[in-house]
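Sequence only, no structure available. Ideas?
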Amino acid sequence: VVQSDYLMADETPIRVLTEDKPGATHKGYHWVYYSPVQRLVLFDYQKGRGRDGPIQLLKEYRGALQADGYQAYDAFENKQDVTLLACMAHVRRKFDEALKNDRLRAECALETIQKLYDTERTAREHKIGPEERKALRQQQSVKVLKELHGWLNEHITQVLPKSAIGIAIAYTLNLWPRLVRYLDDGRYEIDNNLIENSIRPVALGRKNYLFAGSHEGAQRAAMMYSLLGTCKINDVEPFDWLSKVLSRIPDQSIQQLEELLPQNLK
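Reply:
I predicted one. Tokens follow.
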């Protein structure tokens, strides 16, 4: 996954039984990395939500990294050969949350953002390639983003900083350089919704098994989420894939294990 030059990143909590807290659970995190181009997903379990996890895993990474506004990703802002992208879906949620606070301004922002998504839908429906999508964005999205940026700068001084609408505007302006970088490459997405789709099974799992029995168990769960999540992304039936893997493992060279990944064995 980290050999890709375009990754999406996100994190989601998991409760873990631990000897450090008898009778209680520890709040660990699955850090998730998704490669839209390679169609791979990696779950990496960490005991916390600090920046050490992604910094260690991505220490050799070179390419674009797309994430929300969580501060742990700020460590990559000035990292050589890493380009940070933000997520427009998180911006849209901020303004959606501000509807009760300032409906007029929130609706204005949401309507402008929807124009950006209309362009993305057009590209998706016509199944155009990266270069054509980049050209379409240059033709349609650039002017919309300029309109949105001007509106944000105008209204930031007219709202209370701690109000929902003030928070939404400030959040968007703070991430603005990262938000517009998706224009630079037609492979980049406008948001990281694809990775959130990969995280949904974890939320379902939390309701069923409630917690992992240990930190080691949480790491093993991360391994299974990685493999089965990659199966799902590539439309591979998991049981069929696992059956093939088990039949080939005894004779498989350790230098060629990647041949057994779901998208390769398909």
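The first helix runs from residue 52 to 57.
Hope that gets you unstuck.
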